[in-house]
Amino acid sequence: MSVHFEERSGVVPCRTPWGSWYQTMEEVFVEVNVPPGTAARDIKCNLESRHIELSVKGQQLIKGKLFGTTVSDEGTWTLEDKKLVRIILMKTNREAGNCWLSLLEGEYCADPWVQDQMQRKLTLERFQRENPGFDFSGAEISGNFAGGGPDFSNLQK
């Protein structure tokens, strides 16, 4: 579901020295720029539930403890056009309120504006899931969206 929502509404990337990362309710995407002509054999990528390590041609680009927990056996990486490594991590907590503040604990933090935009995006994604007949991809949101937005679960229908 989030793939179609992301295609229509775009992503909110957090820029880093090596590329960028962004997130949906379910996944965290890491895009690492590598030298053109890089081969898959030049890449060493280790994905665990709370750790990530990426080296290209012996140079370590990312290493550390992830901000949140992931499903380790569902993490994947691909080399695209011999110049971009794309890593996809599946979050264990897939709620709109689970907005990662950074990729690693204390590193590659989203600045306050990007963090705000990420949280808004996750809240709209949550609304889209709860209301599949509506299209929230171009919607604007204001007010209380921190922590996944307002809780309507106790309202009577």
UniProtKB/TrEMBL annotation:
Q: Gene3D superfamilies of this UniProt entry?
A: 2.60.40.790, Single helix bin
**Which is a Pfam family this sequence falls into?**
CS
Q: Please, which domain of life does this record's source organism belong to?
A: Eukaryota
Q: Which SUPFAM superfamilies match?
A: HSP20-like chaperones
Q: Which GO terms describe its molecular function?
A: unfolded protein binding
A GO biological process of this protein is: protein folding
User: Could you tell me which residue ranges the CS domain spans?
Assistant: 14-104
* One annotated Gene Ontology cellular component of this protein: cytoplasm
Q: What name goes with this protein?
A: NudC domain containing 2
**What gene is this protein translated from?**
NUDCD2
